[in-house]
Write a structure and sequence with these properties.
Chain C is of the alpha/beta class and about 375 residues long. Chain C has helices spanning about 20-40, 40-45, 60-75, 85-100, 110-115, 130-140, 155-170, 190-195, 210-220, 235-240, 260-275, 285-305, 310-320, 370-380, and strands at about 10-15, 50-55, 75-80, 100-105, 120-125, 145-150, 175-180, 200-205, 225-230, 250-255, 325, 330, 340-345, 360-370. Classes of the chains: A alpha/beta (about 240), B mainly alpha (about 400), C alpha/beta (about 375), D alpha/beta (about 260), E mainly alpha (about 475). The interface between B and E is large, with 60 and 61 residues. The complex binds adenosine-5'-triphosphate (2 copies) and magnesium ion (2 copies).
């Protein structure tokens, strides 16, 4: 397998808060990789460092053999990395259609391609089609999560970064979201997934990392991590 | 930033028409969305404001028929009505164009760009400089007036837009993470700097900073057009007509840009969430510069039109129109493009009516025009805390 | 030169050098500089160095007062020429007066300036309460029956407009409207009710930059009556801004046009040569104020035999009699007003700024200051 | 019944967020409100706490009607809450955040404040003590002087709870207090909720999507869907209710997501 | 969770030494002595006097702040400050009256800035019309005592400060005398009450507005007050309109001020022609100082109390604040009214000191200048705001004029040749603009930021090391409350 995305010894700071202390993560082509960790462990920060929202002070982020450490977010996204951020962050005053159009900012090839993709999204999330002209801010939490996902998929990314896509969702929808992640991956896309619901995440992940206070403490296949004692105790809530 | 929804609300008399299939199809064409609808909107605003203010004036005339001996208020109203409306519209469009600059920048960066009134002033000075250059080269009179106006608007618009971008890069961009009041202070600093720099340049080059547009010798601009309405004749100044035409064209273009193009969509996305916009691939800084450019260009073009209309500008003329335009932007709902247009027209019209009719009430007089205008603003805000067209962002908790 | 302090005499000015009013303030300051350059030779011959210290009062009272404190703290400053705005002159002159420093005002026409009766406060310009009525009198003479009065809401503009209005009404002229506006450039709406009432005369108490713009727009909108203003109108810029609309404008002033007064013509010439532009209103008065100060200092030196005290200078200024200045012959009364104000009514003859000096005097009135008038009334009791 | 809500209605424009909801909360209980996204749960809390004004219906709390009261008055009446999206005073320290929570129980007088009278100092001392006590209670010992925005998510949730407790409420409303926590942290949070009821005697109502928490702690559950109450009962009854399973709990994954109401 | 990395070590060495009380005290005394020496060394006849004064005035006038900031035993600090204010300042002031004037102006503007700081800095309400409350106080005293012919002086029903009626009965005369002696402070209290009341009256309808809507309404209100002041000369003359109120009375001058001035002058060997004038300045200095002291005390006490915490909470998050039991409107009104009350009191002092007020003293630019003081100094931080007021007042009233005086002196001495169009005296606002922009660019959180803002600032400094190209607002993504659901 080819390495698609690689973080080496990344250190990221918020002011004087040292949030990532030498994190190294590797994601191969076609994998689902998950990051597991307690609150404040640095999962979100890792994703933000990849997509260029925060800058690492030291360390390197490579994508497809190219150094993207100091690239601006819009250049990184043009490379084919899509980030579904924590809290969904839909554009509240843009309609569903416009939200999707914004997602296709970097798509070349004109209206035709964009409307084809949009139709694909509507096939995947029929609910969105019903709401096509509704303002993003008035959607319910679950619909917003679908929109966030679809918006990211519009740019046909080679890597999808997902930050807690199930947070605040009704149980019935949580299942749906994981189903979709699986489908996306089966279609050949690579996924880096952050989830509090470690059980479900590890179930679908090929590999996983465990983060603790900004450091990677464990790395293994998803199945192996599920059996790991530390993981079971600390993150799966078992005693 | 937001723009009014482009489809009419439901539940009105026009429902049968609106629901008809042909209309549905028509209302989604670009021609409707970017030409028919906005023009309709402008006309509706003007007519509504005129009707409302006129009705109010006659109501007052009914209550106080003879505010001063030998003055029958209703007669005066009908005599002055066309003049008041025309002057209200022409200055209203100037306010609207300046207000757009405030609104665009506010929409995207959520701060009041106080230096915008100096951008307006800069535009008026560039307009002067251009015409003065032609005049001293002796070719001013040879230019076709229409071409001359277009060239002046373009040049001062572009120059002012570039200046606005420069200011953004130097004085606002480094402060994008600072508390919102901080760029307000740099904006004030920039105002002082711009006033004095323009003054220094004017003083050095022509040793004077009262800049008089050389157009007063050109018949096209100078000779008023007599319009006979009923029994009385009003003289409409050519420059008023130019302002209205130019402003409408530019507003249509802006509406198209913001609501109909990809870049416009990008700017609107940035106004809601910069970081996420970056994630979507939108070049945030470029879009912010573009916003400043457009806002600045509108301000500058308005400045040139204003200069052309009043004939004489100085480095200090920005303040009052700037203040009124800011008021207009807030009245309409700051951050809302249609709101800026409505606010500008309303402020212009209210002012024209007050200035035209208050003189008949010697105890009040036009010295209270500003107080009444602000009073209206405050009243509107008390009942609509986000301005006339502002989205009521009842924050969801 | 400045090292040998005891021989340095400084003259300060305080005018707005920045901001919108600086057109006038700078021109006043220039005129003071010119006067010092041209007229300090006698003092130089006596072994003194005369220096000029300009201050920017920014048309703001705090700044004026703070500058005044700096000025009085410098013992070599023996006289102040200033201000433009009465709002700044009044509090600042309290400071001068407390420190016996003489102020000669070239521009403050507000009656309150001298009515306080300070020994240190003088002015060479007219008073609003005399200038306004002069205009009204002349209008009545022309047979005007209706007038519309505007002002710029400043102490100066409103003051002179009110005195015009009172006198006009007394003389039987109907005042159709009396309005003040801060608007500086766009008068479209304000013109409407004026046109609707078609007055025979518009009187605008204000400064040329505003009044000229108004006039140009009023003419374009179809106003055909007369237009009159106070001495704030007296600037080449008036013609530059209003163009041909300026022709026929009447204004009152204490400074006669250069074409008739050879001194004034020479002044305009040397001023233009020095500063590359023509003098603005109150420049000639500033020149005269400085000249009076220099003359008084010279007189004080002669009588005290050395560097005079400020009180000596103030007394010498107040004693000025029959000084032949650019703007007429000046004798101060006990309050510091010129005893007899010579007021001209002048008509603008051309829309070309270069022709400004050819404006023609159409009436000349000698009006005594209130103190002088009272004295005269006492001398010849009405029978 | 500590709280009795009858036929509560609230709509936003065309969206009918809460339709005719009747719910009772008995004193000293721990109960939950669950329901699909957009069911109107948060809106229901907002109506109780005076952030929104109900269109119709009555809210009786502790023998008095809350209709028409402002949020601060509701707080004074004895209802405190936390927010679904954390709303701390980010630039205040943790301790200060909690101290603000005591506001409605304090005597506020300008003269006393300016003169620093004995009474003022005494009150300040009490407030400090109470805040420190709550800090410990919520498991935040040692973090009192940190700026609240610099703490991790789980701690921020705790600060919100401590701040709400500071007003000595009779009833505390928690809106998704464990969202974004991992199972371990959720378990700790659950014991905190129990302590609130058992040690402080405060009635607890929570909105939650985490069924482990809901089923593990609630004595009573109300289920909302499309703004209406579709079921109520003990955890066992709810788990067995087919309507709840279909609308909310879900048996299998359903691609399109079948919840939700919002605009027609 | 992440750990806090060690603070930057480089600065600590010097800071640590300075933070020892003995060292702090020694440095403070040394500073004051040197500053005073500098002032006395100033030679007015020197060509370079303006430049020297330009440098020395701030050094001297900032010394109380230096004393207040260095660490030293509390008692030493108090003694030192009392000596500074009661002895050093008056002595220097008598020998160099412009510095006394500066001190008075600084106390006036610092008081105003502190009042505005309560509204903007503490409670987070943007007020662009603050000068209106200042005007209320100033006009109150002005109308009560000016001999300008307003309704108050023309009608007998107000006691005119100046023209006490000779025909008064002994009882009435006694009353008038009493009012006269205490009138100033009495009116100052009325000024506080009146401005506070106006604050409440304005606040009641508009405080429901958020952020920038409030800003424009307050801006409008400021203009409305100014326009009223200008136009209420007809039909009934209240304010004397554009002509302004002149010869406004000063508070009565206690006799010992004059003797104090005379004795200091004779000790210094200065010739003072008119000691009463200087003594009056000293009186204003005293009143200004006491007022400022009271205001600072009130600010600290308010900030460090339930009320202050409630204001901060409102500033941070209105909805959370009200839900936690903070009555929004009442607390906002309190902020508005206390800020306004300060301005009212200072307005009375200002009118008395200035002896003349007119509507031009209360323009929008004044409000903006005061706001700039608050922000440049460091919103919310009392010491910072005082520093901001000092610096901006100094720059406007001293530094810039002296800069142009220096250039002018060089020009008079033939050492510099500047065309008249570029006469430096004309470009003071330009320099002021640059000062504002640069200060904000280099210290975005103000010169002395509030505690929490200081933390933010540190973060930013570290961010400076990052590539400059695309600073994406991270705060938005992490802290921003997400409006959508
Ligand atoms: N903008 C910020 N300013 C200061 N500190 C921050 C900021 N964002 C995150 N942190 C801190 O950085 C550390 C890592 O945070 P991060 O959000 O990456 O954690 P996480 O693993 O995603 O946690 P969660 O499960 O709560 O989402 C935490 O200690 C957090 O408090
Ligand atoms: N201020 C508002 N304006 C318009 N619509 C609103 C507002 N607040 C809530 N709604 C709508 O009301 C409905 C109920 O929302 P509410 O937030 O109460 O849902 P919820 O049950 O809390 O859902 P979740 O579990 O996702 O938090 C939604 O459709 C929402 O869009
Ligand atoms: Mg996270
Ligand atoms: Mg909710």
């Amino acid at each position: 397998m080819t390495v698609l995305l690689e973080l080496t010894q990344v250190h990221t700071y918020y002011g004087h808060i040292h949030a990532l202390k030498g994190v190294s993560v590797r994601v191969d082509q076609g994998e689902v990789v998950t990051l597991v960790g307690a609150n404040g462990a640095g999962k979100t920060t890792t994703l933000k460092t990849i997509s260029g929202i925060t800058r690492p002070k030291r360390g390197k982020v490579m994508f497809n053999g190219q150094d993207i450490t100091d690239m601006a977010p819009h250049h990184i996204s043009a490379q084919g990395i899509a980030h579904v951020p924590e809290g969904r962050r839909i554009f509240p005053l843009l309609s569903v259609r416009e939200n999707l159009e914004v997602g296709s900012w970097n798509v070349k090839g004109g209206r035709g391609i964009i409307s084809d993709r949009m139709n694909q999204m509507f096939d995947m999330f029929p609910r969105l089609k019903e709401r096509i002209n509704q303002k993003g801010g008035t959607l319910s939490g679950g619909e917003q999560q679908m929109l966030a996902m679809a918006r990211a998929l519009m740019m046909a990314p080679s890597v999808l970064l997902l930050d807690e896509p199930s947070m605040g969702l009704a149980p019935v929808l949580v299942e749906g979201i994981f189903e979709i992640v699986k489908r996306i991956n089966e279609a050949g896309n690579t996924v880096l997934l952050v989830e509090q619901n470690a059980l479900m995440a590890l179930e679908i992940a090929h590999r996983g990392y465990v983060l603790q206070t900004g450091e990677i403490v464990l790395e293994d296949t998803g199945a192996a991590l599920l059996q790991n004692d530390l993981v079971r105790k600390a993150y799966l809530g078992e005693t | 930033m937001s723009s009014e929804s482009l489809s009419p609300r439901q539940g009105g008399l026009l429902d049968p028409l609106i629901q008809s299939e042909a209309w549905q199809r028509f209302s989604h064409t670009g021609f409707y969305r970017f030409i028919v609808f906005p023009i309709g909107q402008i006309i509706v605003f003007i007519v509504a404001a005129t009707v409302f203010l006129t009705a109010l004036a006659y109501l007052v005339a009914l209550l106080i028929p003879e505010p001063r001996p030998n003055i029958v208020l209703s007669d005066q109203i009908s005599r002055q009505l066309p003049g008041m409306v025309i002057s209200g519209i022409s200055i209203g469009f100037v306010y609207a164009m300046v207000a757009l600059g405030y609104t665009l920048v506010y929409g995207v960066l959520k701060f009041i760009n106080f230096a915008h009134s100096e951008i307006f002033m800069f535009g008026s000075v560039i307009g002067f400089a251009f015409m003065n250059f032609l005049s001293s080269a002796g070719v001013l009179a040879d230019w076709n007036p229409v071409v001359l106006v277009i060239a002046t608007i373009l040049i001062s618009g572009i120059a002012s837009g570039l200046l606005a971008v420069l200011i953004e890069r130097v004085a606002y961009k480094p402060l994008r993470n600072a508390p919102r009041l901080v760029p307000l202070i740099t904006a004030i600093g920039i105002s002082f700097i711009l006033q004095d720099v323009v003054r220094a340049l004017a003083s050095i080059t022509i040793n004077d900073f009262n800049l008089t547009y050389p157009t007063r010798n050109i018949a096209f601009f100078q000779n008023p057009i007599p319009v006979v309405i009923g029994t009385n004749e009003v003289r409409v100044r050519m420059t008023s007509i130019i302002i209205v035409i130019a402003a409408v064209i530019m507003l249509l273009a802006l509406n198209y840009f913001v609501n109909g193009t990809k870049a416009g969509r990008g700017i609107r996305a940035i106004s809601m969430d910069q970081a996420t916009s970056g994630l979507m691939g939108i070049p945030v800084n470029l879009m912010i510069s573009l916003t400043f450019f457009i806002g600045g260009a509108f301000g500058g073009a308005a400045g040139a039109l204003f200069g052309l209309n009043v004939g004489n500008v100085t480095p200090y003329i920005g303040f009052i129109p700037g203040l009124k335009a800011f008021t207009a932007a807030v009245l309409g709902g700051i951050g809302n493009i249609t709101g800026a247009l409505l606010g500008g027209l309303l402020i212009g019209m209210i002012e024209a009516f007050l200035n035209g009719l208050l003189p008949y009430f010697p105890a009040i007089g036009i010295r209270y025009t500003d107080i009444i205008t602000f009073g209206i603003l405050i009243a509107v805000l008390i009942f609509r805390p986000s301005g006339l067209l502002g989205e009521r962002v009842d924050e969801k908790v | 030169a400045a090292q040998d302090g005891d021989n340095v005499i400084r003259i300060a000015s305080q005018t707005p050098l920045s901001g919108p009013q600086s057109v006038l303030g700078v021109s006043m300051s220039n005129a003071v500089r010119l006067a010092i350059d041209e007229l300090s030779q006698p003092l130089v011959d006596m072994g003194y160095t005369v220096e000029y210290v300009p201050f920017d009062d920014q048309a703001t009272p705090e700044v004026g007062v703070s500058n005044a404190q700096q000025i009085v703290a410098d013992p070599s400053i023996l006289a102040v020429v200033g201000h433009l705005n009465s709002g700044v002159a009044i509090p600042s002159s309290e400071v001068y007066n407390e420190n016996d420093l003489v102020m000669i005002s070239p521009a403050n026409t507000n009656p309150a300036i001298t009515d306080r009766g300070y020994a240190t406060v003088n002015r060479v310009c007219g008073r609003d309460d005399l200038q306004g009525p002069t205009g009204a009198n002349y209008a009545a003479e022309l047979g005007i029956t209706s007038a519309y009065v505007l002002h710029d809401t400043t102490a100066y503009g409103q003051g002179v407009a009110e005195y015009f209005q009172d006198e006009a009404e007394r003389l039987g002229i109907t005042v159709l409207g009396f309005e003040g506006t801060e608007e500086a450039s766009n008068f479209d709406a304000i013109i409407q009710p004026i046109l609707a009432q078609s007055p025979e005369l518009i009187y605008f108490g204000g400064i040329y930059s505003q009044t000229a713009a108004f006039l140009a727009q009023a003419r374009a909108a179809g106003y055909e009556g007369l237009f009159m203003g106070p001495d704030g109108t007296d600037s080449t810029e008036f013609a530059a801004i209003a163009g041909d609309a300026a022709v026929g404008t009447l204004y009152t002033t204490v400074a006669g046009p250069a074409s008739i007064y050879p001194n004034a013509a020479a002044f305009i010439e040397s001023y233009t040569e020095a500063f590359g532009e023509g003098p603005q209103p109150f420049a000639a008065q500033s020149y005269d104020s400085t000249a009076i100060a220099l003359q008084a200092i010279q007189a004080a030196i002669e009588s005290t035999g050395g560097l005079p005290s400020r009180a000596d200078v103030a007394a010498a200024v107040r004693a000025t009699a029959d000084y032949e200045g650019l703007t007429g012959t000046i004798t101060f009364d006990a309050n510091g007003d010129p005893e007899i104000g010579l007021y001209y009514v002048i008509e603008v003859v051309s829309g070309d700024p270069a022709e400004w000096s050819n404006n023609s005097i159409i009436a000349t009135l000698e009006i005594p200051s209130p103190l002088t008038a009272a004295a005269m009334a006492e001398a010849t009791p009405a029978s | 019944m500590l709280l009795k809500v009858n036929n509560l209605v609230k709509s936003f424009g065309g969206i009918r967020a809460v339709r005719d909801v009747t719910i009772g909360i008995s004193e000293g209980s721990i109960s939950s409100i669950i329901g699909p996204n957009g069911a109107g749960k948060t809106t229901f809390f907002n109506l109780l706490t005076g952030i929104y004004k109900p269109d119709q219906g009555s809210i009786d709390f502790n023998g008095r009607s809350l209709i028409g009261l402002r949020p601060d008055q509701v707080n004074k009446a004895g209802i405190a809450r936390t927010f679904q999206s954390i709303r701390l005073f980010g630039n205040m320290t943790v301790l200060e955040n909690i101290m603000v929570g005591t506001h409605s129980r304090l005597h506020i007088s300008l003269p006393h404040t300016l003169l620093r009278t004995r009474r003022f100092k005494e009150q300040e001392r009490l407030v400090q003590e109470k805040a420190s006590m709550l800090l410990k209670f919520a498991g935040l010992s040692g973090k009192g002087d940190e700026l609240s925005k610099n703490l991790p998510y789980g701690d921020q949730r705790r600060i919100e709870i401590a701040r709400a407790l500071a007003s000595d409420p009779k009833l505390i409303l928690l809106d998704e207090p464990t969202a974004g926590m991992n199972p371990q942290e959720s378990a700790e949070a659950m014991s905190l909720f129990r302590k609130i009821r058992d040690e402080l005697g405060i009635t607890v109502v929570l909105i939650e999507h985490d069924m482990r928490v809901v089923m593990g702690i609630s004595e009573h559950i109300d289920v909302l869907d499309y703004g209406q109450k579709i079921a109520e009962g003990t955890p066992e009854e709810i788990r067995a209710n087919p309507r709840v399973v279909e609308a909310y709990l879900g048996r299998r994954a359903m691609g399109g997501g079948a919840n939700n109401d919002s605009a027609a | 969770m992440a750990t806090v990395s060690a603070m930057t070590p480089a600065k600590t060495g010097f800071r640590e030494i300075l933070s020892r009380p003995a060292v702090g005290l020694a440095v403070a005394i040394l500073y004051v002595v040197v500053a005073v020496l500098f002032v006395f060394m100033l030679d007015r006849r020197s060509l370079w006097y303006p430049l020297a004064s330009l440098v020395i005035a701030p050094i001297f006038l900032l010394s109380p702040l230096v004393v207040a900031s260095l660490s030293m035993p509390r008692i030493a600090r108090i003694v030192l400050l009392v000596v500074m204010f009661a002895v050093v300042m008056p002595v220097v002031g008598i020998s160099n009256p412009p510095y006394l004037e500066l001190a008075v102006q600084i106390s006036i503007f610092a008081g105003l800035a502190l009042g505005l700081n309560i509204v903007v800095g503490f409670a987070g309400l943007l007020d662009l019309g603050y000068v209106a409350f200042f005007a209320v106080g100033a006009y109150l005293w002005g109308m009560a005592t000016s001999p300008s012919e307003t309704i108050f002086t023309e009608n007998a029903w107000t006691v005119s400060y100046w023209a006490s009626n000779p025909d008064l009965s002994p009882l009435a005369a006694g009353f008038v005398a009493f009012v006269q002696s205490g009138a100033f402070f009495f009116v100052m209290f009325i000024g506080i009450a009146a401005a506070g009341l106006v604050g409440v009256l304005l606040g009641l309808p508009v405080l429901r507005l958020r952020g920038d809507y409030l800003a424009i309404v307050t801006l409008g209100f400021g203009e409305v007050i100014r326009i009223f002041a200008r136009n209420l000369d007809s039909p009934i003359n209240f304010t004397n309109g554009a002509q302004g109120l002149r010869n406004i009375a000063a508070p009565p001058l206690p006799g010992f001020y004059i003797s104090f001035t005379e004795s200091i002058a004779s000790v210094l060997g200065l010739r003072v022609d008119n000691p009463a004038v200087l003594a009056k300045q000293l009186l204003f200095y005293t009143i200004g100082l006491v007022l400022l002291f009271v205001i600072i005390l009130v600010c600290f006490r308010l900030k460090d109390s339930v009320i202050g915490r409630a204001w901060t909470a409102i500033r941070e998050d209105e909805i959370a604040a009200i839900a936690m039991g903070v009555p929004l409107v009442r607390m906002k009104l309190l902020a508005f009214a206390s800020g306004a009350a300060f301005a009212g009191a200072i307005g009375v002092l200002y009118a008395a000191k200035q002896t003349f007020i007119d509507p031009q003293s209360f323009i929008l630019l004044q409000s903006i200048t005061i706001l700039a003081m608050v922000i440049v100094g460091g919103m919310g931080n009392v010491k910072g705001v005082v520093l901001g007021a000092m610096i901006i007042t100094l720059v406007e009233l001293h530094t810039l004029p002296n800069l142009s005086l220096q250039l002018n002196a060089l020009r008079n001495a033939g050492q510099l040749n500047i065309p008249t169009q570029l006469d430096p005296a004309k470009y003071q606002p330009l320099v002021f603009g640059f000062v504002l922009v640069l200060m904000m660019l280099f210290r975005p959180a103000g010169l002395l930021p509030e505690k929490s803002r200081r933390l933010e600032l540190m973060e930013r400094n570290e961010d400076d090391e990052l590539p400059k190209e695309e600073p994406i607002s991270d705060a938005v993504l992490v802290d921003g409350s997400v409006p959508q659901e």
